[in-house]
Design brief:
The protein is α/β, with parallel strands linked by helices. The protein contains nine helices and seven strands; from the N terminus they run ααβαβαββαβαααβαβ. The chain has a domain of 180 residues: Rossmann fold (3-Layer(aba) Sandwich), CATH 3.40.50. The chain has a seven-stranded mixed beta sheet, with helices on both faces.
């Protein structure tokens, strides 16, 4: 079946230009979203596994996970050569053992198919027009009984409205889903739902993708103050109590599903 991409290789190449590399952090009030995704990955199982990240160009996650879970093997796949080069540089800088494969997820090396216990993607599957077909392609990498974890931005909530307001072309690069359509896409791909939900109570920092040198002063000001709100809320949550995750305010959502053993 034909599938359309909302982004092309040139778009991602531009994202992967060399830049200062900072290790991933999952502690502290600035990293509540990272902590939430790490907990979801832990629940899916990270020890004594063969794990693949799809769309892994310059991934902060793979070096972090490789060092945290040395009993597992971690592989990153991306179709941007520049992204793969940056991931290799990051892994070397952090002293992490990560295998990097430069290939399209829809036409990967055959020896990768059916060879992983867990695959995950972060902000990938929403860039295609057909979610079930995209998830079927991802599940082809997984052994029977293995798991697929997909994390995507929550464009059905407030952040989606703000992305559309601040930079409509960025919004148009996504196929906006809510949690129900994300779950339905996994079911339609023949996967068995395991866990799903929203991550973090809020994070306006994700709006950074909407701000560039051409952004208006008012849009830059809106982003700056929203980001400050996120920091204040994060400080409150770290010191007192975690706020509820919700369809309106949570920045991202995820779904973990199993590949049938049949």
């Amino acid at each position: 079946m034909e599938i359309s991409r909302y982004t092309e290789k040139e778009y991602w190449d531009a994202k992967y230009l060399p830049k200062d590399k900072h290790p991933l952090e999952v502690t502290g009030f600035r990293n509540l979203k990272n902590k939430g995704l790490y907990n979801a990955l832990l629940s899916a199982g990270l020890d004594n596994k063969r794990v693949l990240e799809i769309g892994a160009g310059d991934s902060q996650w793979l070096p972090f996970l490789s060092k945290k879970h040395p009993t597992s093997t971690f592989v990153g796949l991306d179709y941007s050569q520049l992204g793969c080069i940056e991931l290799e540089a990051r892994a070397e800088q952090e002293g992490a053992n990560v295998e990097v494969v430069c290939a399209d997820m829809f036409s990967p090396p055959e020896d990768m198919l059916g060879s992983f216990d867990l695959i995950y993607s972060i902000g990938v599957v929403e860039h295609f027009d057909n979610l079930p077909v995209t998830l079927q392609a991802l599940s082809d990498f997984v052994k029977p009984g293995g798991k697929v974890l997909s994390e995507i931005p929550n464009l059905a909530g407030l952040n989606g409205f703000l992305v559309k307001m601040l930079n409509k072309p960025v919004y148009d690069l996504h196929n906006p889903h809510d949690l129900n359509s994300l779950k339905a896409g996994h079911l339609d791909a023949g996967l068995e739902l395991d866990e799903f939900g929203y991550i973090a109570s809020n994070d306006f920092g994700v709006l950074s993708a909407c701000i560039n040198e051409d952004s208006s002063k008012i849009n830059k000001l809106i982003y700056t103050w929203l980001n400050r709100v996120t920091k204040l809320i994060g400080m409150f949550e770290e010191r007192f109590v975690s706020l509820p995750k919700s369809r309106i305010f949570s920045p991202v959502m995820y779904c973990t599903a199993k590949v049938s053993v049949q």
